[in-house]
Amino acid sequence: MPALKLHYFGLPGRGETARLCLTVGGIPFEDVVYEFSTWPASKAKMPFGQMPVLEVGEKMLAQSGAIERYTAKLAGLYPEDPLEAAEVDQAMFLMSDFFELFTPTFRLKAEEKVAARLAILEGKGKDMLGHISKLLASGGYIAGGKLSLGDIAVYVSLSNLVSGFMDGVPKDLLDGYPVIKAFHNKIASEPAIKAYYETRGEGYRAAFKPSA
Q1: How far apart are CA 79 and CA 101, in angstroms?
Q2: CATH 3.40.50.300 fits 4-75, yes or no
Q3: Where in the chain is the domain with CATH 3.40.30.10?
Q4: Residue 212 in this model has a pLDDT that exceeds 80
Q5: Strand 59-62 with 53-56, pairing
Q6: What is residue 201's predicted lDDT score, i.e. its pLDDT?
Q7: Is 166 helix (H, G, I), strand (E, B) or coil?
Q8: Alpha-carbon span 111 to 119, nearest angstrom
Q9: Edge-to-edge strand order for the sheet containing 53-56?
Q10: CATH code for 82-208?
Q11: Is 52 buried (19+), middle (13-18) or exposed (0-12) by CB count in 10 A?
Q12: Which segments within 166-210 are labelled E, that is strand?
């Protein structure tokens, strides 16, 4: 297998799902961490001027969704069954739709940003969290009766949501959604994932621990 290098910032963000897929799969990789202050000097070296980027030998793979599916396949976390694979994608697209609600808020001033996000969580965001609860209602895994990319991606999205990175989103938001919180804690308690955050559970990553 070619050497793998994941290029991204030190925060979880869009790089964390790939990090966890590789970690769960026991696949060695180099986590190349960038500072926001020095990132502009490296931007032109990336395929589309953005990160994350996964360096696979001499090739550079961009776009987080592509990287996540590639690393999941390497780790045996992406189902071979077409319907189960579609269930994984369904969950990931649902989370993408949810986070798109917040995209316009990143351009707002601080006070407006907080107010806008709280309004989303009381409106369309609340409806979407209801859909996510419905998706996770069985209490099991998202596809195939075992851990998959779908579970990891949803868990990472939920953890990012309440990590404190998004001003205005309460860190205890999931307390109001017991099905979602139970799912979060289930995936956070997976041995490889739990071990990963035992040494990385500070700052934003505190939200990735069980019962966070």
Answers
A1: 29
A2: no
A3: 4-75
A4: no
A5: antiparallel
A6: 85
A7: coil
A8: 13
A9: 30-34, 4-9, 53-56, 59-62
A10: 1.20.1050.10
A11: buried
A12: none
